[in-house]
Amino acid sequence: MVVERVKLKDREYTIWVTSDRATRDEFYDELEIRDRYFKVGSGDVVIDIGSQYGNYTLDACSLGARVYAFDPNPKTYGTLKANLELNGFDSHRLFNLGLWSRSGELSIKDYAPHSDWEGKFRATTLDEWAELHGVNRIDFIKIDTEGAELEILKGGLNSIKRFKPKLLVEVHTFVNESLLPAVEDFLKGLGYSCERIPRPPATMVYCEVKG
């Protein structure tokens, strides 16, 4: 890998770039969506679930947020950690850990047959993690987890009810068409309004509690 600068409108980062340019493309991907829907301010607490190479995490840190980022894949986690170090941010904590509806060991192939990573990983729930770490505020949750999104929401039910964070969830409808209405119904049942954002072959959903 080599180090490159990535220029994204009013911000610029140094990142590690793979030979196939995948990591670089990741930072330009969803740029318009991040600019419009990633409503994060200074002092906010952000949970980035499925952080991959760090496009959302770096954005949140640059905006002055406190970020807790999760990625169970050792390879992408290593690049995420290196990218944060390259940019000198210190308002974050990184976890090489998955989130789910229960604690235990999971194989990504159990819910994401399309994944090119075949590893098993340790998982906990958002609620258990938040209690363990004494988290008393969550302002925004972003989820991009290859089909695990509903299970993660279930495991964070108490935290979502308590803190009412804004959410941006990528729903992998190409894995399971029933995921999108299930995610929306889950969040609407907690008082959220949801806006669909087309992102073929998936659909992203931005959700917040009004009023």
If you had to describe this structure to a student in words, what would you say it looks like?
A hairpin with a 2-residue loop joins strand 1 (2-8) and strand 2. The chain has helices at residues 22-28, 31-37, 55-62, 74-87, 126-132, 149-155, 157-163, 179-188; strands spanning 2-8, 11-17, 45-49, 66-70, 92-95, 98-99, 104-107, 120-124, 140-144, 166-171, 192-199, 202-209. The chain has a single domain, classed as Rossmann fold (3-Layer(aba) Sandwich), CATH 3.40.50. The chain is an alpha/beta fold. The mean pLDDT is 94. The strands form three sheets. The protein has a seven-stranded mixed sheet with strand order 5-4-3-9-10-12-11, with helices on both faces. It has a three-stranded mixed sheet with strand order 6-8-7. The termini are far apart.
Strand content: 25-35%
Low-confidence regions: none
Strand order of the largest sheet: 5-4-3-9-10-12-11
Reported by name, the CATH topology is: Rossmann fold
Which secondary-structure class do the elements indicate? alpha/beta
**Counted beta strands:** 12
| Second rung of CATH, namely the architecture | 3-Layer(aba) Sandwich
Mean pLDDT: 94
How do the helices and strands follow one another from N- to C-terminus? EEHHEHEHEEEEHEHHEHEE
Termini separation (Å)? 47 Å
Largest sheet: 7 strands, mixed
User: What is the number of helices?
Assistant: 8
Approximate helicity band: 25-40%
Radius of gyration, CA atoms, in whole angstroms: 16 Å
For this structure, what is the CATH homologous superfamily?
Vaccinia Virus protein VP39
CATH class: Alpha Beta
